[in-house]
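Progress against Task 2.4 (sequence-to-structure conversion) is shown through the following example record, which the project officer requested during the mid-term review.
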Amino acid sequence: MENAEKIKQLVREKYAEIALQSKETNEASCCGAGASCCDTVDYTIFSDDYTSLEGYNPDADLGLGCGLPTEFAKIKEGDTVVDLGSGAGNDAFVARSITGENGKVIGIDFTDKMVEKARRNAEKLGYKNVEFRQGDIENMPLGGNIADVVVSNCVLNLVPDKKQAFAETFRILKKGGHFSVSDIVLVGNLPENLRKSAEMYAGCVAGAIQKEDYLSIIREAGFANVTIQKEKPIKLPVEILKDYLTATQIEDYNSGNSGIFSITVYADKPENCCKPGCCD
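Structure tokens generated for the chain above:
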């Protein structure tokens, strides 16, 4: 418990600093945390390009994602969408462009400074049906069965108790609702020194777990139709790999058979759910 609280405090402090930086600064720093963290970080190896998506707002894009969950989230006009780890509002605003005036988007973020920034962005855009709340994904400030869709972008890997985070996601979704989440996972066993180096090179590897363990947590939470919608390997420079892997191991790593991956995962809450939380 003490270690989990320390992790949360570090996340809160780091992302409070990120909220005050530009996207360009974040892309040139350790998981957005500032150049003093390390000298070789390239956070852009995670991020996808949002600029062609309707609803994109450059003021809300801090370059912190590792996928495009809203692109796969099957959002419909009039839906209520919850964005976990909403940052400056990037995914929330893209979701709002789909759900429209008759829908609602709620962003939840752990960091006060991020919530403040997202609210300023929403105010500048004149959005009345987008709101941002400060809160912990392990204990969301929301009632049960309110969301048609949940999205999240490279956030749950930072949450210490992923089982609780997905249990909360299950609780807030309506029966028949679903989520689309982009996140960082591991495949195979990375040598410990390589993993530590990868964390320094591309900060958010730190909270990543094995892909199969990640998917198992989702299923154990009660979700059905668990599907990987998109998967891409995160490429590390050969200069880092060669310090820890043989030539054969590097070839295997670069082939995608093992390593660090960004995945976008879909799952739904069954209509006939009889699990605790379905009717709360």
